[in-house]
Design brief:
The complex is a heterodimer.
Chain A: E1 5-7, E2 10-13, E3 19-24, E4 31-38, E5 42-50, E6 53-57, E7 64-68, E8 74-78, E9 87-94, E10 103-104, E11 108-112
Parallel strand pairs in A: 2-11
Antiparallel strand pairs in A: 1-3, 3-8, 4-5, 4-9, 5-6, 7-8, 9-10, 9-11
Chain B: E1 4-6, E2 11-14, E3 19-25, E4 32-38, E5 45-50, E6 54-58, E7 61-66, E8 71-76, E9 85-92, E10 100-101, E11 105-110
Classes of the chains: A mainly beta, B mainly beta.
């Protein structure tokens, strides 16, 4: 089985711009979660989607949003980028509705200048 | 109080030794626990999951869970230089796949 894929792998943006990141889960997996990883804050949960519905949300401002499509692919969007949004954005997929094992994609490295 | 506490290390062990990584958590509602390995510049890779009290073994790895003490650990037997990485513990409670991560322990296996 192919693993989780994320595009793009690297992105450079300037403050005030917006960005959209994409994630394709492992085939058959219906849950997609997004995480932000920074040296200062570590790995933090952004949100989770299951069957096109946001099921959980972390403590991030409304500038961070996401969605999931009927084929389980997911996108996250960050509007009005700030310097502090520079991070590794990770997508993880899991197969079930419960607290199942999550498998991470390679991540998207976002740099905000 | 932090939700998950891990010793950031670095933890140095000689090749062939047992590496012991520990994690304490504060939420008694925690139900599922995971250990991830992350190499520098890479994404986290799942090593073990553990859901009930006791030990779970997979190859050179053993996860131990004690819910009464709110403690989960990972033992790596016969440590190899390729085990050098940051190890992250994570847990989730009911209601979906929201993982809370520790800060990670950096492990160095020396020749």
């Amino acid at each position: 089985k192919a693993g989780v894929t994320q595009t793009p792998r690297y992105l450079i943006k300037t403050r005030g711009q917006q960005v959209t990141l994409s994630c394709s889960p492992i085939s058959g997996h219906r849950s997609v979660s997004w995480y932000q990883q920074t040296p200062g804050q570590g790995l933090q949960f952004l949100f989770e989607y299951f069957s096109e519905t946001q099921r959980n949300k972390g403590n991030f401002p409304g500038r961070f949003s996401g969605r999931q499509f009927s084929n389980s692919r997911s996108e996250m969007n960050v509007s009005t980028l700030e310097l502090g949004d520079s991070a590794l954005y990770l997508c993880a997929s899991s197969s079930w509705t419960g607290e199942d094992e999550q498998f991470f994609g390679p991540g998207t490295r976002l740099t905000v200048l | 109080q932090k939700e998950v506490e891990q010793n950031s290390g670095p933890l140095s062990v000689p090749e062939g030794a047992i590496a012991s990584l520990n994690c304490t958590y504060s939420d008694r509602g925690s139900q599922s626990f995971f250990w991830y390995r992350q190499y520098s510049g890479k994404s986290p890779e799942l090593i073990m999951s553990i859901y009930s009290n006791g030990d779970k073994e997979d190859g050179r790895f053993t996860a131990q869970l004690n819910k009464a003490s709110q403690y989960v650990s990972l033992l790596i037997r016969d440590s190899q230089p390729s085990d050098s990485a940051t190890y992250l513990c994570a847990w989730s409670t009911g209601g979906g796949n929201k993982l809370t991560f520790g800060t990670g322990t950096q492990l160095k296996v020396e020749l």
